[in-house]
Amino acid sequence: MAKIYKSHLPSLQVPDESIFTHLFSTRFFDFPPSSPAFIDAATDVKLTRGDVRDMCLALAFGLRNTLKTLGGVQLKRGDVVLIFSPNSILWPIMLFGSIAAGLRVTLANSNYVSRELEHQWVDSRAKAIFVAPPLLPVVQDMFRAAGLSEAETRQRIVLADWGSYEGSGGLSSQFITMTKLLGGGKLATEEKFPGKQSSETVLLCYSSGTTGKPKGVETTHRNITYCVNMTRVVYPTSTTQDVMLAVLPFFHIFGVSNILTFSFLIGSTIVIMPKFDPVDFCRNIEKYKVTMSMIVPPICLALIHHPATTKFNLKSLRFMASGAAPLSEAVVKATEARLQSVGAQTMVCQGYGLTETSPTTHFLPLEDRLRKVGSVGVLIPNLEARLVVDNTTDAELGGMGELWVRGPNVMKGYLNNPEATKNSITLDGWFKTGDVAIRDSDGYYYIVDRQKELIKYKGFQVAPAELESVLIQHPDIVDAAVIGVYSDKDASELPRAYVVHGKGLKGEAAVAFGNEVEKWIAPRVAKHKLLRGGVVVVDAVPRSAAGKILRRELRDLAKREVAGVRAKL
């Protein structure tokens, strides 16, 4: 019989309705329309909750009606629009306005080149694209490569020319713009998705899942409304209005669900930064009296090591929640100590989730952040979990197994990919996360690593995340990543580390430091975890915008390094 773990928290009942209907409902969340909602840190433009609702309904009207009259495509309920933009104050308007219009929204990485963007455009079957003016050349290249004429391209582009990009350097006269769409009227009410209709797809974030090319994750209205309310139970909200510093990319599920949607749901003021910069991050905490931020581990590392931490008043910052990648005990303690040294009593903890789970499944209560440091916390309400070994049997208590989860926030499936969906979701609703976890006797979960990234050294499993957490404790290392490199001589994978030295090292000094680190770590880990594949000093560890280590790039680098050694021999 399967060993099923249930959340110890009472389950919730959430209305089956549109995300937009839910967010602006006064049945549960009675925040005055005059309450501050969003602030653009780059321009200091501010929007109240009333402003956001009015602008979203105006954009919804523009998308369903004005767009066609301006020479654009005709959009109907269920059509897909793509957002291609860095963070800006326009993001909530583009997102929630499209949802109010009854559309599905696919979110593209703003760092994509035209080839990458084309895959998502074609796969999602998008009909129109919101584009920030600086990214317009990428979109034009994409359509040109796809064989579209200039006229056809203009039909599909909506230039995001408001807020940070107001005026747009003359481009506004050449394209359909958000300013034009916002000025044509307003829907009396949003498109409704009651009852079973709430299980219609609304978001298409792209994820590689446990394997393969990026796939469109079909996230429903119900997935999001349940997830943000389940998260609300465990999230440490304040008795006064919180100010959230939003620095993670909104094109990622972490940003779009946990920051844009969840933080709006709980009535926070959301200060939007276009991207992370340690000086701007600290400056904005002081300027807007920020109380909380959702972050990724590299932000902790920056706060530990960057001098900006000592140059601004950070005392308002009471809490930071990390996700997307493992946060080690050493980094938690070093971050809190660094902030305490400048008078900020900031608490740091982490949670866990995936694009496919909308995203949150686990959260570590603040009161347990040090007692259970390193844990991603407990299951949030309405969820069940299993730890499965080799896709067949359940792990014993304290044993490792692939984490499977089941609940109302699990995606509908992968777009246009029934085979991948079948491989990821069992017939009885269990989503296979691809992450290896341990559950302790108190019900706290620890993510060991990605199943596909575990290193096998002569039959022993070695978790890269564990070695990385040890390496970060070295006083001269500011970032680290570990991969496995195959050795013909040993007939096995060997753990190999890529580290960033705080002062930057080159040549012989870098080689010497790598050798020193190999010796330094030896007494701190079991013998099968020794860095037998070597330690290489790099300028930076390659990471995604959400902070995840891009191990594939490191594997490619390792292959080139090995090939170079062989060539010399």
From TrEMBL:
GO MF entry, a single one: CoA-ligase activity
Ranges of residues in domain AMP-dependent synthetase/ligase: 33-415
Keyword Transmembrane helix: yes
UniProt xrefs under Gene3D superfamilies: 3.30.300.30, N-terminal domain of ligase-like
Family: Belongs to the ATP-dependent AMP-binding enzyme family.
Keyword Membrane part of the UniProt annotation: yes
Keywords for the protein's UniProt record, in alphabetical order: Ligase, Membrane, Transmembrane, Transmembrane helix
Domain AMP-binding enzyme C-terminal, first and last residues per copy: 466-548
Chain ranges passing through the membrane: 250-273
Pfam families, alphabetized: AMP-binding (PF00501), AMP-binding_C (PF13193)
Annotated PANTHER family: AMP-BINDING DOMAIN-CONTAINING PROTEIN-RELATED, LONG-CHAIN-FATTY-ACID--COA LIGASE
Name of this chain's protein: AMP binding protein
InterPro entries named among the record's database cross-references: AMP-bd_C, AMP-bd_C_sf, AMP-binding_CS, AMP-dep_synth/lig_dom, ANL_N_sf
